[in-house]
Design brief:
This protein is an alpha/beta fold and about 220 residues long. It has one domain: Domain of unknown function DUF4159 (Rossmann fold). Helix content is about 25%, strand content about 15%. Strands 2-1-3-4-7-6-5 form a seven-stranded mixed sheet, with no helix packed on it. The N terminus is likely disordered.
Length: about 220
């Protein structure tokens, strides 16, 4: 199913009979931003996913389409996206049908990254209870593999923006031993992926750390069992 989409990009080769280079391989898959209901700004951080995709294609040698998709939970193409990103500051609302579709997507091999852009927490927790009423978000230990893919984050998530001055936390929903949803809180990881200069207070080092952590998320989502 989704595992068939998780193919690393091949390098371009010279044609044996000419000096012309072979055309680049078609993208193996696309990642998507979730367009949810409720009135919240699901569209926030317009440069974040394109920058993360570019970074992953260079650093991880993935072959992700350079343009992100936008998908709603009712869309029949939802299962074609191995990595689903969700962000925003405000209200989130899932219908029961949408909650069931998201549950099927995640149980079937999909992966959801929720990034609290500040103010999302009180809305997303009850909505995810519609999806997995039997599960609670648990804080993942710093030893979890998601922090130890290509890049090592021995102390967990990088702190991008202060928000309420609390430490950044990474929460997970684990279904039958598999991490299906990773929720970054008090971190603002997606803001860190945006173009340098979008937030003048963000240093290049913060931007790089955010992209590296994002690459870990993508690598984990594409390779976990």
């Amino acid at each position: 199913m989704l595992k068939s989409l998780l193919i690393l990009a091949t390098t371009a080769a010279l044609l044996l009979t000419t000096t012309a280079a072979a055309p680049p391989a078609a993208p193996s898959y696309q990642i998507a931003k979730l367009h949810y209901g409720g009135g919240g700004d699901w569209y926030a951080n317009k440069t974040s996913l394109p920058n993360l995709i570019s970074f992953c294609n260079q650093a991880l040698h993935t072959n992700i389409a350079s343009d992100e998709a936008t998908v709603e939970l009712a869309a029949p193409e939802l299962p074609s996206y191995p990595f689903l990103h969700m962000t925003g500051h405000g209200n989130v609302s899932f219908t029961q049908a949408e909650a069931q579709n998201l549950r099927r997507y995640l149980i079937g091999g999909g992966f959801l990254h929720i990034d609290d852009n500040y103010g999302l927490d009180k809305f997303i927790r009850p909505e995810m209870k519609k999806v997995f009423p039997e599960l609670d978000f648990v804080e993942l230990p710093f030893s979890h593999p998601i922090y130890h893919q290509k890049y090592q984050f021995a102390k967990g998530l990088p702190k991008v923006h202060e928000h309420d001055g609390k430490r950044p936390q990474g929460f997970g929903l684990v279904y039958k031993g598999r991490l299906v949803c990773f929720y970054t809180f008090e971190c603002d990881l997606g803001n860190g992926w945006e173009d340098v200069g979008t937030y003048p207070e963000d240093t290049p080092a913060v931007h790089d750390a955010a992209l590296r952590m994002g690459a870990n998320l993508v690598a984990y989502a594409l390779t976990q069992d």
